[in-house]
């Protein structure tokens, strides 16, 4: 892919990107697709009408620079429309003269829907909101396709498709239940509601189980979920996904993540263990790291006007840190500053893309140093979009039951970590540790279990058990005792 970049000098000399040198890529989980380690988010300036149609120019510049992961959402104001204008310039609209099939095949174009249902028969108010005005998920599918590849008014050309449609901003177990409702039997017309996932799957596979895809369209290649508030909700969604239809997880990752309900030690390991591609966002905390107010963008001008800032953590370290978690495929940021001469001192796209080329795995010490530096220079109250930490939470749902064989079966669900990963579970009978079990992420709703085959019978007062979770810092969190 041709690019606009030439070799840099000074501190950027380590990264030169002539057209024959491809950008760094990583596998996006079980999608089987390689994507560039730095991708373009559809927020920030891409959402607005700006002088010189700057939003469109940013998208064009990103694609011509070689970036392959491009993402936005139905609820990002004008973002999909602006991307559609850029795609016309780039010859990415099927059916128009000059359509660049090869370029379209290289790109991984993703968007999101915040609508939770595909069918509502009981008169209840559908869950979720779309800036397009639709209430059921098919409306957002069609809106994305017409704005990206059609006329923006409903026309969808033959050959148009989305590489990824994600269920946007999952924040609670109730939302997960709504999205999955009726997934196993969506053809049952007696169901009061059918969740969004069944319809999304119809448009991925060309099936018509919901009755919403009579033409058997295959408009979607992959499905995913996103969120930045609650790792517990993401873990629950992944565990409910028994047929592995969710291919990606998009979550917030930056050096203050460990000070909140941490994605790096909770939801990301579960997604990675399940084979999902992981995408990082909120790398600069929506600009709060560099002085913006703690609020979601709702008007033009909410952008950081510099590439990093003096006396703050270098922006390269934010990029390195966010690309570091095992399983992280790519990170995305909005762009608030570009330069017509591609000067990396005045162009966030050029600078962040360059930083993503040289990112290497961090040692534990380097990771902790970055976290500490951010706390000192940027403060810790930056991730307004993330749930506060509840501390190290013990294994959930612990129970003990005596079996006919005399053994005692213990069951529990995952503990929730703070900023340090969980390394093991320890099983105690009264005050005696009887087992040590290496930690592994819980990828299904089936609980972890252990059988105490040496449990004595007839013990005065009964037998009491607990399970302890231990993290890498040596802290522990114990369940309440359970009697068998």
Architecture blueprint of SSEs:
Layout: E1 25-27, E2 34-36, E3 38-41, H1 54-64, E4 69-71, H2 79-89, H3 101-106, E5 108-113, E6 117-120, H4 137-149, E7 162-167, H5 173-180, E8 193-195, H6 196-205, E9 220-227, H7 231-240, E10 246-252, H8 267-273, E11 277-281, H9 315-322, E12 328-333, H10 348-357, H11 364-377, E13 396-402, E14 408-413, E15 422-429, E16 432-438, E17 448-452, E18 464-471, E19 476-478, E20 482-483
Parallel strand pairs: 3-4, 3-12, 4-5, 5-7, 7-9, 9-10, 10-11, 11-12
Antiparallel strand pairs: 1-2, 6-8, 13-14, 14-17, 15-16, 15-18, 18-19, 18-20
Helix pairs in contact: 1-2, 2-4, 5-7, 7-8, 9-10
Walkthrough of the structure:
Helix 9 (315-322) crosses helix 10. The protein has eleven helices and 20 strands. Mean pLDDT is 95; it is low at 1-19. A hairpin with a 5-residue loop joins strand 13 and strand 14. The strands form five sheets. An eight-stranded parallel β-barrel has the order 3-4-5-7-9-10-11-12, surrounded by six helices. The chain is globular and about 85 Å long. The chain is 22% helix and 21% strand. The N and C termini lie far apart (65 Å). The longest helix is centred in the C-terminal third of the chain and has 14 residues, at 364-377. The protein has 484 residues and is α/β, with parallel strands linked by helices.
- Per DSSP E runs of 2 or more residues, the count of β-strands stands at 20
Mean pLDDT: 95
Number of DSSP helical runs:
11
Helix/strand structural class: alpha/beta
Proportion of residues in β-strands: 15-25%
Radius of gyration: 24 Å
